[in-house]
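>> Question from a student workshop board

For tomorrow's exercise we were told to take the sequence and the ligand below, predict the bound structure, and bring the output to class. My setup keeps failing. Could a helper post the expected result so I can at least see what it should look like? The ligand is manganese (II) ion.
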Amino acid sequence: MSYAIAPPSIPSLPIIGSEQRFPVRRVFCVGRNYADHAKEMGATVDKDTPMFFCKPADAVVTDGADVPYPQATTELHHEVEWVIALGSGGRDIAVAHAQALVWGCGVGLDLTRRDLQAAVKAKGHPWDIAKGFDHSAPVSALRPVSAGMPQGDTVLRLSVNGALRQQAHLSDMVHSVPEIIAALSTLFELQAGDLIFTGTPAGVAALQRGDRFHAELVGVASLEGTIV
Ligand code: MN
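>> Workshop helper replied:
Here is what the output should look like for this input. Compare the format with yours to find the bug.
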């Protein structure tokens, strides 16, 4: 068998303390998972059901590479998020069994064309063009959970040009990681290689060309890069 065109390469993330890389299959994202961010967006949290959207796997930016300022926007926003990487999958996973699917953790930015998001929200259109654009998902190297799962007092934060923009504890999340995995697995058969962005706390704001960002899941993973 041969392909008519060159097949796309598989996006992958570095692994802390390893020469191996983690292959990315899909990118799922949770919306409105911190009450203070939902409030700043004029939205409310649904405590029963997480809200999901997706990005293409090849939107992932790896290894601290520069992030090109995207086309078709004048309002590129940062959303710093705890990123979960799945090492196994399944469907209709029970909350009590969901933790076992997690292979590793990192920190990432759910970059958002906020002006386009406002426009599609107003029309009741899908979020894809606001969320799933090229280079919209910078992610750090992953730390395997064999080195320990981050606890609720772990700090998630983002600085831009040295100034703190967003900060929260993981315990501030409305839906826990096992709850997110369980809910997502009722909608999709989860697979090894899937990433899940778990939502952002308050403080989302614009990025400009030349801005240097530093996202941290303190003691677990960090990511630095530049908007170019
Ligand atoms: Mn987000």
